[in-house]
Amino acid sequence: MKSAKQAIFAERARLSLLRNPLSVTGLSILALQADASGAGLEHARLLMSAAERISRRDLLMQLWLIEDRVRQEDVAGALRHYDRALSIYPEAEPLLFPILAGAVDTPDIRKGLFGYVKVRRPWVRSFLDFATGHAPPAALAELLIEVDGGDRPSSFTRPFEAGLLRNAVAAQQFESARVLARRLAKGMPREWQELVPSQASSAPDLQPLTWATSEDPAFQLQLDASGAVLDIGPEGQGIAIYRVIFPKPGTYRLVQQMSATDSEGLQGRWDFTCFGNTASNIASLPALPATATSSQITIPAGCAAVRLALVVGGIDRASASEISFQRLALVPQVSRAPAPAGL
Questions:
Q1: 57 or 134: which carries more pLDDT confidence?
Q2: Pairing state of beta strands 227-232 and 219-224?
Q3: What angle do CA 139, 144, 149 make, to 5 degrees?
Q4: Residues 6+ positions from 277 with CB-CB distance below 8 Å
Q5: Helix (H, G, I), strand (E, B) or coil at 293
Q6: Closest listed residue to residue 70, CA positions, set 61, 81, 59
Q7: pLDDT digits over 59-90, tens only?
Q8: DSSP states of 201-258
Q9: Distance between CA 233 and CA 217 in Å, rounded?
Q10: In sequence order, which residues have a C-beta less than 8 Å from that of residue 138 and are 6 or more positions away?
Q11: Are 163 and 131 in contact (CB under 8 A)?
Q12: How far apart are alpha carbons 36 and 22 in whole angstroms?
């Protein structure tokens, strides 16, 4: 706003204060004009302080007070005004959340946020939902773990830690992913780590370290107490299910036993993708026709993690198919030292 228009607004604010000396809007406008015109920052602070003592319900005032506390490097004060603004004006979330989420990796900000998250202020759940996808994952995980103060997430923080796990894997931050997985897995059946698809090894909170289904509706993984069945529509093509595992470098055998119904024309393979400095395919092993098979695979050094994906193809499939999983395992191959030569 040009200075001439600022002066007009300021004059109107002065006139309104003559009729209503407790006008929060009038005091706020005069404070903004004093700050913008260089009339004196201390004068602006006095006016804003007077306005806030009358009422905190003015978003423009709270935004100015946030900026002023930041200007003074007063983290606690800035967060106090964040809390007031967001508690009264939820519509300010799109404006304030990106700034706050981006600052979570600052230790003082994280320390200041701790109290607000701990007591579940009205805006905290919405903020954590936003921050899960926008804040630095390691810093936000540190905050959530500190808030819980235990070795496993609470019911409140669990969905946010699960979201952070997915983001950490997507960003190939596997050390953070391992920390979160250990916390999220507390109390779960040990079967979540097994390769064969089941209720435990398809736990949503631990995906994609457990089996996840493609977003293509042609693929549906049906789970019950007896096992898992993959429903494949006749139009299903591409990755059907996948998960991320952490095998040590070495030679393994992929041992599988599956059965399929209505599988004429259906093709399938297991793709192994190594996540290291760059993502690269290290093996493609047959999965269909469904039989009991054993195939060798070598995990090279430098693979921080491996994505295992069932890729489905085939043409002229007239009907839906089903695949049932009886066994799926990576069995390490132990190299034996050669016997000593005889004398």
A1: 134
A2: antiparallel
A3: 125
A4: 302
A5: strand
A6: 81
A7: 888 888 888 889 889 999 999 999 999 999 99
A8: GG-GGGTTSS-EE-SSTTEEEEEETTEEEEEE-TT--EEEEEEEE-PPSEEEEEEEEE
A9: 8
A10: 105, 168, 173, 176
A11: no
A12: 22
Q: What pLDDT was estimated at residue 4? A: 59
Helix residue ranges per DSSP H, the chain: 3-19, 24-37, 41-54, 59-71, 75-88, 93-102, 107-118, 124-134, 137-148, 158-170, 174-184
Query: Mapping DSSP to helix (H, G, I), strand (E, B) and coil, where does residue 183 land?
Result: helix
Can you give the length of the chain in residues? 343
Separation CA 35–CA 48 (nearest Å): 11
Distance CA 330, CA 203 (A): 20
23 token code pair: 């006008």
Edge-to-edge, what's the strand order for the sheet holding 267-275?
212-213, 238-245, 305-313, 267-275, 279-286
Instruction: Report CA-CA distances (Å) from 66 to 176, 184, 238, 292.
Output: 32, 36, 50, 65
Determine contact, residues 304/275, Cβ cutoff 8 Å.
yes
Compute CA 43 distance to the chain's CA centroid, rounded to the nearest angstrom.
44
- Mean pLDDT to the nearest integer, 328-337: 79
pLDDT in tens, 6-54: 666 666 666 666 676 767 776 766 666 666 666 576 667 777 777 677 6
Q: What is the pLDDT of residues 262-294, one digit of tens each?
A: 878 888 899 999 998 778 999 999 887 666 678
The three-class DSSP label of residue 306 is strand
CA 117 distance to own-chain centroid: 17
